[in-house]
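Priority: low. Protein: Alpha/beta hydrolase-fold protein. Input follows.
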Amino acid sequence: MTTTPPPPTPAPVHGPGAPGAAQAAFHPGGYHTGVSLLGGWLPLTIEIVTVVALIAVVGWRTGRWRVVWVPVSVVIGVLGALLARWYMDSQGLASDPAPAALWVWTGVAAAAVAVAALGWRGTRWWRRGLSVLAIPLSLASVLLVLNQWVGYYPTVQAAWGAVTAGPLPDQVDASALPGLRGTTMSTGKVVSVDIPDTASGFNHRTEYVYLPPAWFAGKTPPKLPVIMMIAGEFNTPADWMRSGNVIPVIDGYAQSHGGQAPILVFVDAGGSFNNDTECVDGPRGNSAGHLTEDVRPYVISHFGASSAAANWGIVGWSMGGTCAVDLTVMHPDLFSSFEDIAGDLGPTAGTKAQTIDRLYGGNPAQWAKFDPTTVMQAHGRYTGVSGWFEDTGTPNRPGMWKGAKGKNFSGFHRPTQQNSAPNGFGGQDNTRDTDESGAAEKLCAAATKDAISCSVHTAPGGHTWQFASAAFPAALPWMAAQLHTPGTAPVASTPAAAATTAAVTAPKPAPAPEPR
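Result:
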């Protein structure tokens, strides 16, 4: 018996010229047009007005005010910032270190509350009113810096649409779909769906399905491929459309391919905004069961999608990236391709001991069941499974990045995390995540040992929605080809020039046609 050796372990693909490089934070249309919340005049104006208001509130007043109560307010502000930082570290709420401005404005907000309370008596009416106004202004400044850090709402329009539950791009009511059958569409349509949780019992929010123009052609829906879209830990099912801006991207792809594109299903992996399930089954809910046993059969039965694993893929960002790898290697009979955008080595909710306790109710066997490296080792050789890893990186030293037209873009490493919390807090264990030992490289190396074709891509950027929104269109042509989307030519995950530095295999053979 002869065996085919697995592909070689891939090296990272670096730089703006590599596939997956996050060269553009925004795409035309959608919620990424309008007044920016990530920079420009509005955030700066709010911060300036806040500072001016606080200066006017503090004022000169009396000697006792200046000597006693102003310093007390400053101390309260410092303690408030330290408490907020301790809480974030203890809960492991962030992969990247928070900007110093976040703690500064958190301290300012706490100090503003102290100034208003301590200086209320014996103060003129206008100063009382201004002290009350300074509190929401300082809180708004905190939220602005927080949003600039994670890139959650790029514009005022995006934030307003989310707060008011405004319509999504291309959104129509599901009742309108029959009337659109047999028509020529210039864009796809998004519909909300309430998927029964019969199999999983997972309490989830409204989810969404994008149907490309090709879905509406003909008397019956074609059996199109499907991409499951999973967001990060703090999320709503609509985040990929509002913050990730994927609708203009997938519409553009469909328009350039005769209306053909995969169906996208925007799932709820958390059940609530801050429920970190990591897409596993456990005390926080049967998230994995919902995605595999509720969502997938529903999309097949209600929208006529293909049921073949070769036509199903997963794209995930942050926590969702971890989910994408995990669900694919655990269920190669359901999914065949994944894009992991800045995910972890495996489902994580702290240290390993904390993760076992929080995600699996203290059951180590469940940890092993959902750990992707362990799963791949136990499974052995895979057939027809492929992956695309996208991760953040920065040049090792100034001057290495020459821009989009330069050729010298070597020497990438991941931003160093400055962990101030003790071991056990938020999963801190003094383990540095470097380019040599990063999650993407480790997972891809493990995957290639079991014949999963994969490649690793790094690009400059932080752990933000802007990075995710650029990573999705970079990998979309590859993903569409891997899922055998009609009208899509085979696409390698790396350019020809980089073929020797990454493991690349041809797209999987097309599955046998399904009976219609």
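The radius of gyration is 25 Å. Residues 41-150 form one domain.
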